[in-house]
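Form 12-C: Joint structure prediction
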Amino acid sequence: MLNLLKIWRNEKSREIIVQIIVLIIFGWFISWLVGNVSGNFERLGKDLSFEFLFIPAGYDINQYLISYNNRDSHLRAAIVGLLNTGLVAICGIVIATIFGLFLGVLRLSKNWLANRIAYWYVEFTRNVPILLHILLWHGIIINTLPHPKQAIDIFDVSYLTNRGFYIPKPIAESGIELFYLFTVIAIIFAVLFSRYSKKRQELTGKQFPVFWINLMVIIVFPCIALAFNNFPISFSIPELKGFNFRGGLHLSPELIALTFALAIYTAAFIAEIVRAGILAIHKGQREAAESIGLKPDKVMNLVILPQARRVIIPPLTSQYLNLTKNSSLAIAIGYMDLVATLGGISLNQTGREMETMVLVLLIYLCISLSISSLMNWYNYRVKLVDR
Amino acid sequence: MKIKALLAASVAGVMFAGSVLAGTLDDVRARGKLNCIINTGLAGFAAPDDKGNWQGFDVDFCKAVAAAVLGDANKVSYTTATGKTRFTKLAAGEGEILSRNTTWTFSRDVDLAQTFIGVNYYDGQGFMVPKKLGVKSAKELDGASVCIQTGTTTELNLAEFFAGNNMKYNPVPIETNAEAQELYKAGRCDVYTTDASGLYATKMSFDNPEAHVVLPEIVSKEPLGPVVRHGDDQWADIVSWVLRAMMSAEEKGITSKNVKKLAAQDNKDKEINRLLGKDPLQGLSKLGLSADWAVNVISQVGNYAESFERNLYPLTIVRGMNALYKDGGLHYIPPIK
Amino acid sequence: MAFDKNNYAPGTHPDLPPPPGTVGVVGWLKNNLFSSLSNSILTLLSMYLLYLLIEGGLSWFVVDAVVNANDKPGCRKIADGACWAVIVKRFDQFIYGFYPLAERWRIDVSFFLLFVAAAPLLYPDIKFRKYMLVFSCLYPFIAFILIKGGLFNLLMIETNLFGGAMLTVIIGVTSIACSLPLGILLALGRQSRLKLVKVISVCFIEFMRGVPLITLLFVASTMLNYFLPPGTNFNLLIRVIIMMTFFSAAYIAEVIRGGIQAIPKGQYEAADAIGLTYWQTTRFITLPQALKISIPGIVNTFIGLYKDTTLVVIIGLLDPLGIGRAALADTKWNGLSTETYLFVAVIFFISCFAMSRYSLWLEKKLSTDHN
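Section 2 - Result
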């Protein structure tokens, strides 16, 4: 008895004992769950198998980035869904970032009116559930825009209807390769050039108008390539045929509502993050920068933003992550994302809720974990070095 | 020592509790209520009235089973399910019967391990369009936007129909009938497709039903019927014979009005006697039902025709395929012997 | 001497009025709206935006709006603006769901008592705090009995009649109350020296934070029964609350972990030095400080959870949004989605905005305590 007490009193051995107990309880719990699952499956005559992924899905999807028809497998349907999730997430992130930055700057503006408008906008947007945003925008598009027959016509090439937006679709013809090549070259040039000018600025203090030069290069270069090959691009213009517009690029109301709702909801959070990040920089920094004669935009670009970025990026990434996760609400309006394909129709058609849900959870988990490890890596890189 | 004994006892208790599983009938009797899984809302089949009471053709069947096993048609507790959740809800034990216009298919019967106990409504998938589109046939629907309810056989039939006729379409998947209806009315889609019965029900709920037409094409076979879990044959037999009792009652002219009288007297037709408990029906005790089971069903819910007329005639649905065999329909009932 | 014509003795010059245009209305306008060219343009743009909003919005919202009508065509007959009649006609449903009319006082009483119970938790300076805390502990049981019934001659109410704002509050409050202790345990687990405990906590937290809530709710509604012994049947509402609890516990754990990490190392060393055990250190040193720092974060998590309760509509529970959708599905009100969703949005905005104000107030109060 005394020996036992001794072991218990010893910190090291006590830790081991506690861990063993935890392991036993945890192991028992897991085996209980597994036992229940297998028992239930046996009772219901089900089995755990992923073979369903390779049988034809049989249903159609109204938006696909890779070719798909109803003879393709459930696996391909799931990939189509995953790509649709990615599409909405990326579009949403881009719009949310631009809009959020704009709002954040307005919130810092000395202009009282603009400041107040931005404030109330941000407060209203972020205090209303995202699902409501999505439904509200979807409802507005469906109920207020006209039927295709009375579509709002924009220069005879684009049309707004309650079935979505139809815009011209560029179609590449032979000779387009040069255009792609020049675009890539222009982007590489822009990256290298901004690096070089940053280094030069750090060494000598001299600056190039980097943004304008890069913009010129990225626009002009590919255009030259196009002109060189006699513009190997044609446009497919949407036309009203039968029930709907045919041709062109069709953006469905679901895609628009979802992207828009996710973007403006997240933008409200981003605005606050940007504002907080800029305010977090000590006033003295700005004053010092102004006192050595930097112009306001230089103060922002060279002094405030590089420091604020360190504060802004981590919460910004988690907002991006939230946006991606929130895109799963697509199911409420029938946008065919991962949850609606694999976790929705495939689940219904095959009746394999365990397998499909496990896959859906794992895929989201992978996305989240990879984004957050990327963020950790970035944090590590920009970490302030204590001196 | 004491702790060890306690532990052993509790472990044994847990295992024991897991292994004891009463039959479905005993569960229902012990609870005093039948749990029935129904549609979230489809006029004529299952929809709440102004006071919040569920009414409809599928609801009537739940009531009939409750009348047979509990003696009281009102002892039913309803759980609603979308097309997506219905099978999981049934498998999870949230209800003993799934009475929610469910199509009997091979893979549902075999792969999902459900037991379909019969057909209570022969249906087929159709299309509804606004009259002003001027469409006369489903073959003219090339390029249309089509609202579909997800989680049903509908989307597969649709894909096959359009592919088979070399037509393109733009599917708009929706979770519930109500939402699909809303989108259809807002003009998000040109066509609404579901089982013809559902189309009639939806059409009648519009404020101007005559502005919409149901197209003549029926593109699939949809035998709808109640479903129970695999594995309890006694329960499956009870449910299927309740359905057959309602149909034989129609065949033999037994209605809720005359059932009490017929049960009291000796009838020439011995099948009526057997059904109403006048003459012994062999094997009834094996089902665990009392002799007056069918009397309860018919007196409290009515026969098949009564239920049909009460719920589906207001939707302008005619008997058609759903008439008895002797009236030119498909319902051919095994004899009660 | 050149500019001092009146020759005042030092210190006797009277205060001159400020230069014109720097104070008063003109000064304010100049400083805040028209300080520079770009600023003036911004002001004019904002004013135009406001004009558009008021011009278009006001007529739709108020002037042309209809409050009294029996259906949508009825609304349209009167005026072309918003048809608020759908809200007016179903207002009770938006609040109480399908809870029986005669029993609704029970909801009102529970809701009122919720504030009494929450007061000592939210306002640390309140009088009789100790006694009120006892009530706070009893409140969950009182509320449960009041709302669910089945005891003391109270009619038993089935949970499928719950709905509207009441359902939101029930799910939100229950989940947050249950997730707090779980979150604390997880946060402690994540900071634990015991490797195994740490690994389990981290896995749980990262899993819950890594997947969308809606998929967890799907798991709750379709799969949870596979993990339980055959025959166990949980009410859907309870399953949802369990999932919501797990979900918010993971977020709360991260908030509290932030609080724990903010405590200076010296505190632990001091606690070790005076020989406190782990649990004593946790109870007297770690948690009081960590919780205090993380209260604003917890309130923010609660706001997030409260907004997320709307997702239950996707698995078929009727929160205000669900009630709204049911109203829209009614053929009488088809197509009034803007009105319905805006109304629900305003309900959520008011409650969430109030909570975020409270959180800000608390943050300020706590931060002054520190200085």
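Section 3 - Comments
Chain B is about 40% helix and 20% strand. The two ends of chain B are 62 Å apart (CA to CA).
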